[in-house]
Amino acid sequence: MNSVAGSETTPKIAILGAGPSGLLLARLLQQSPTFACQITIFELDPSRNARNQGGSLDLHPQQGQLALKEAGLWSQFLQHARPEGDVKKIVDGKGTVLFDENGMTKQVEADGIGERPEIDRDALRSILLDSVAPETVRWGSKVVAVSSTPASGEEKHDVVLADGTKEIGFDLVIGADGAWSKVRPLLTDVKPYYSGITALEGWAEDTHVRHPWLSEYVGAGSCFMFDEGRAVLAQRQGNGDIRIYACVRKPEDWLERESGLEGLEEVAAATKLTDEQFADCGQNTKRVVLESTDKVIPRKLWMLPVGMQWGSRPGLTLLGDAAHLMTPFAGVGVNLALQDSLQLARLLIAHPSDPALAVRQYEQTMFVYSKKFAEKTYAGLQGHFSGDGAAHFAGRLKRGHEAMRMKLDPVV
Questions:
Q1: Whole-model pTM?
Q2: For residue 265, what is the DSSP state?
Q3: N or C terminus: which one in the chain shows less Cβ crowding within 10 Å?
């Protein structure tokens, strides 16, 4: 059924994607006492529990944490945050442990939460879902296109769904719909490209009971092995499970044409990858991969060009991965997405009668800070997959701890 356009005083807003950025933006706008709007979030998933939302992530003070505070969700976040998970263990290709934060004293802020506490993606999404008006999210709404039509002298935008229906007359359509956004093509011809890295994601469930060695070896947070052309990233989840990502630098068609991984059952896929790509690594690194086979998923990692921009167009914009898709090698993806939502919400609330101005100002600011983090992420992509990647990362952690020790006890 076609919907009617919103009034001039109440902007009608469509958000594509019920991920962290889309939900946070809706929350911030709905809680504003001065900004009245109609918001619809179109979400592909049929329900909130239709699929797992991914692994654990850390929220940074001036990005994710700040956004949740302004959204009035800090107390909910504290109920799920895991400051104990903010520790890293770094291993080189031969299995030598170069640095291990497990058991080390780290700085704790006044609220006792630590600098970058972990939270599971499922928990973060639940917090955000529970914070928006129940009718906001349209579940099972796969968007296939966004189109534009003139209306009363102003351009309006329509959302076309997979079932053939069209929702019409939106003043602002916001693409928070990830790598393959349906809004981005209306702003730029640029598409994501293959980063050069393919990963085998592995799950180890109920590790305390079923995988006690793995649980002990990984530790309370993350365990990283970096080496020339390869890496193994292991991360503890809030429920005690562990997820690993065995990554290799390979051509784009390697997974389909050469790897032989597709179609194999979990243990066989992990064994084949280990034997062929990690055979000369330390025994512990290989064991991490081989014990994480409760579920195995091959993945290619995609990215947008560093510093990508587009010409502003009234009524359309992008958030999160739709705007600046990056690889995970700086750990800033969700933090940037939440920062985007906070910036856009502030400007829409500040300019309620001129959303086009708000969008322009948001994009100009977002292009600057996202480029900085995209450059950092690309440097991580290059550095982590080098022969001295582990030593370099461990050295940076050591210097950080030494600087903090001197700050806390300058007479040492």
A1: 0.93
A2: -
A3: N
